[in-house]
Design a protein that fits this description.
With about 90 residues, the chain is α+β, with helices and mostly antiparallel strands. The chain has 2 helices and 5 strands. The chain has helices at about 20-35, 55-65, and strands at about 5-15, 35-40, 45-55, 75-80, 90-94. The mean pLDDT is about 95.
Amino acid sequence: MNYIQYSAVKIIVSGRVQGVGYRYFIARFAEDLGITGYARNMFNGDVEITAEGRREFLDALIEKAGQGPNGARVNTCKVEWLDFKKKYDKFEIL
């Protein structure tokens, strides 16, 4: 029996992640994997990513978030796993 596990995650990314296309980079990757949620800039210069989807795809998103696009410099990714609640219909940039 194949059991697909769904989950949710909140990732706070710090470093040079604003003004470098970081949210668009994450959104494209998330959409390709069918992940829903959002990415938004925070006032302190970090980016918050909240995402729901298959656990293995969220693991890939976390890895991608730690890399970022060309021009970005990721210092830290704080990851908090959440309960899956199917809150989102698509992945948005806020």
